[in-house]
Design a protein that fits this description.
Strand order of the largest sheet: 1-2-5-4-3
Largest sheet: 5 strands, mixed
Distance between the termini: 36 Å
Strand content: 15-25%
Helix content: 40-55%
Order of helices and strands: HHEHEHEEEHEEHH
Shape: globular
Oligomer: single chain
Length: 164
């Protein structure tokens, strides 16, 4: 299936493009970070843009963002993040929901618009685990957009990994 990017379908591309351009401007090494959360859905035009961007990182990317942003601890998720742009862009070395392998998420990221985005299969798993109303809606949109097989596969992996 050909990717249909956000700028082809939504008026909020300009808003999200601003965040993507800021991240590009940080000069982070592509192999040490990836855009996660809803970002991979947004860039494909599967959902409307949001008011923030979540990024996972490691190594030199983490070292760099700590020098340019504000570090804070989020007790609800038991993670430390670095925020830039008044909290609109956040970076972390771990993800507070589920137990994803950050190295796998970054190493398997897809380059889109010059930035690494976590593969949709991983985003879907995270959203199925979190299962908020917003995430459930995103799953419906994915299924309607031809990504039903990815959603089904992610559900199967989650069920297989549940303790008996």
């Amino acid at each position: 299936m050909a990717l249909k990017y956000l700028y082809d379908t939504h008026s909020t591309w300009a808003e999200m493009r601003k965040y993507f351009d800021i991240v590009k401007g940080y000069g982070l090494p592509d192999d040490d970070f990836a855009i996660f959360g809803s970002g991979p859905l947004i860039v494909r035009g599967l959902i409307e843009g949001s008011n923030d961007l979540d990024i996972i990182c490691r190594g030199s990317a983490w070292d760099r963002v700590q020098k340019i942003g504000t570090t804070e601890f989020l007790p609800d998720y038991n993670v430390t993040i670095v925020s830039t742009c008044n909290g609109d862009i956040t970076f972390g070395t771990e993800w507070g929901i589920g137990n994803p392998d950050i190295d796998t998420l970054i190493d398997s990221a897809e380059m889109i618009e010059g930035l690494p985005f976590v593969h949709l299969s991983h985003v879907i798993e995270y959203k199925l685990i979190r299962s908020s109303n917003k995430d459930k809606h995103h799953m419906e949109l994915l299924e309607k957009s031809g990504y039903g097989e990815l959603v089904h596969s992610a559900r199967s992996r989650i069920l297989q990994n549940r303790p008996a």
